[in-house]
Design brief:
This protein is of the alpha/beta class. The protein has two domains: 293 residues, Aminopeptidase; 114 residues, Alpha-Beta Plaits (2-Layer Sandwich). β1 and β2 form a beta hairpin.
Length: 417
Amino acid sequence: MSFRSSAEKWKDEAIRLRRHIHQNPELGHQEFETAKLIAQFLEDAGLEVQTGVGGTGVVGLLKGGREGRTIGIRADMDALPILEKTGLPFASVHEGVMHACGHDVHTAILLGTAAALSEHRDELQGTVKFIFQPAEEVQGGATDLIEAGVLLNPEVNAIIALHVWPDLPAGKIGLRKGAMLAAADAFDIRVTGKGGHAAYPHRTVDPVIIAAQIITALQTVVSRNLSPLDSSVISITKLQSNSHAYNVIAGEVQLRGTIRTHNPETREAVPVYMKRLIETIAEGFGGKAEFDYYRGGSPVINDDRIVDVIEQAAADTIGREAVVYLKEPSMGAEDFGAYLEYVPGAIFRLGTITEEDARSELPLHSDSIIFDEQAIVTGISVLGEAAIRYLDQNSDDESSIELGVAAGNEHRGDRHD
């Protein structure tokens, strides 16, 4: 029997939970009440519950009636510092905090999945670990959980997740093998020159001119230093000088930005090219430049075999026609990639567009975005069925995954070069 019927049974409760979480959003590392709600619900469903994991994280363990492997299912639960303008009857009661990225939907779906699967525990060939992660938006949440041992005791052999996607209609999901989301790194550049009177620029070393040259030249890193077949982005998001007058040439300019890549080799190469270019340009104009690079979240590289499991689960529960095959990866980022450094897994996109309200097509992080709650049943159906299928298909596989090596991803670099 399809897991869809079990998902439908928990639809109303999952929607109720989603609305409560949406109305009471909490920022990263501050998800205290959300964590309490999750823990109580999981305990009531008969799961073993661990709280305070990596800070405010919650883990629920559902042991099946038969021995087997362990699959993890992860949902993020933090909100964003945004003033909500949806006008929904369950809009945020915390001014300046909003679930604008759908983490309330993710959390409700995973709670519904836990409840539905708990009714099938005797049939499960293994264990399901439900991972409720804090602080995805501010980064660090996934790493905190991993360092706290979330992938151990019992050892997680595979992991899956979903993310709401306002480019797909509700009832559909988006799948892709290989590169799915980008690594998100950041940088600061400090350009130092010699300030002075704007009427006499020849007596200064203008850091604004140097910064302008650097901004233009950085775009050649992508177009001339990297293969045209590699996807990468360098974006400058801040330009600020220390001059506060119309007639004063600044002595210093600060730049800030982001780097997005999919390929690990490209990720390593980009900051090397940038540093050389930045310092050379500044020196050529008689100034100096300091380049600080901050390594962020890993790229999300979906494992082929886990994607196949999700596809089979979707075909069985929502129909093969509801599966959309994504042609290109996104340059957006998601810290789910941190888990994939250790175990094979995959994330899929959950359609949330409703024809009844154009706000459902607004971009994520919009202050007015809404999500079609019918997608909740789709999410529960696919996640639950995928967990069952993975455990059934791997019931005879006793091989162990060494933490730090993602089994099934040995050729991960080749797959997304």
